[in-house]
Amino acid sequence: MKKDIKSVLLSEEEIKKKVEELGKQISNDYRGKELIIIGVLKGAFVFMSDLIRNIDIPVKVDFMAVSSYGASTKSSGVVRILKDLDRQVGGKDLLIVEDIIDTGLTLSYLVNNLESRGANSVAICTLLDKPERREIKMNLRYKGFDIPDEFVVGYGIDYAEKYRNLREICILKAE
Ligand code: IMP
Ligand code: MG
Predict the structure, then answer these.
(1) Which ligand approaches the C-alpha of residue 40 most closely?
(2) Is the CB of 151 under 6 A from ligand 1?
(3) Cis omega (within 30 of 0) on the bond before 130?
(4) Interhelix angle 12-29/45-52, nearest 10 degrees
(5) What is the dihedral of CA 39, 8, 68, 160, to 10 degrees?
(6) Distance between CA 18 and CA 35 in Å, rounded?
(7) First to last CA, the chain
(8) Which of 69, 70, 89, 108 shows its CA 20 to 30 Å from the CA of 172?
(9) What is the pLDDT of residue 35?
(10) Ligand 1 site, residue 68, Cβ cutoff 6 A
(11) pLDDT confidence of residue 120
(12) Buried-exposed string 66-97: b where 16+ CB fall within 10 A, e elsewhere
């Protein structure tokens, strides 16, 4: 696995510190509200599991899976819901947890879709952001790190389903 890695972009320690900060902020902002955290499968699952353990107010979790890249490193712009939420979200405060925002096409589709279900609020928490690549303007209420336009893996993020179990976030070698 290590031979495919060009460099470590974010260490375990840096990620841990940031996730703690985000958890604290979210706890303060949503105190007294009915928060549902929605993980976007599969890339966000490691981040989400660490994030919720740094939140000290009651939360419910749910998951959605949408198609994005497949095994290619370019966004297709086509969004398909592969797995929908288990519960209704009318009147609830929703926080979408995502691994990376790249073009923004996937997330802006999800935000519109969840708003149309009558949620009280829909906000985004992304671990990583590639601002250079944005095609749609969006409001990211919680963000871990801005990163350069490089293909990254690790901490739940894959290339062709590999490297999700790396503990750091790494830049993959171009093949
Ligand atoms: P967007 O619709 O272009 O914003 O696509 C965002 C999704 O593409 C993310 O949730 C990731 O699943 C995937 N993605 C974007 N950049 C990377 C990357 O550097 N490594 C792995 N997946 C990525
Ligand atoms: Mg994703």
Answers:
(1) 2
(2) yes
(3) no
(4) 60
(5) -110
(6) 21
(7) 14
(8) 108
(9) 97
(10) yes
(11) 96
(12) bebbeeeeebeeebeeeeeeeeebeebbbbbb
Q: State the ligand closest to the CA atom of 65.
A: 2
State the distance from the centre of ligand 2 to the C-alpha of 139, rounded, in angstroms.
17
Between residues 66 and 169, the one the model is more confident about: 169
Is the Cα torsion angle 25, 28, 31, 33 positive or negative in sign? Answer: negative
The 10s digit of each residue's pLDDT in 65-121 is 998 655 455 555 568 899 999 999 999 999 999 999 999 988 998 999 999 999 999
Place of tokens 């995502």: 98
Question: What secondary structure, in 3-state letters, does the chain show?
Answer: CHHHEEEEEECHHHHHHHHHHHHHHHHHHCCCCCEEEEEEECCCHHHHHHHHCCCCCCEEEEEEEEECCCCCCCCCCCCEEEECCCCCCCCCEEEEEEEEECCCHHHHHHHHHHHCCCCCEEEEEEEEECHHHCCCCCCCCEEEEECCCCCEEECCECECCECCCCCCEEEECCC
155: its two tokens: 């901490």
| Sign, Cα dihedral of 160, 66, 99, 34 | negative
- How far does the centroid of ligand 2 lie from the alpha carbon of residue 88, in Å? 22
Instruction: Round to whole Å and give the CA distance between 75 and 78.
Output: 8
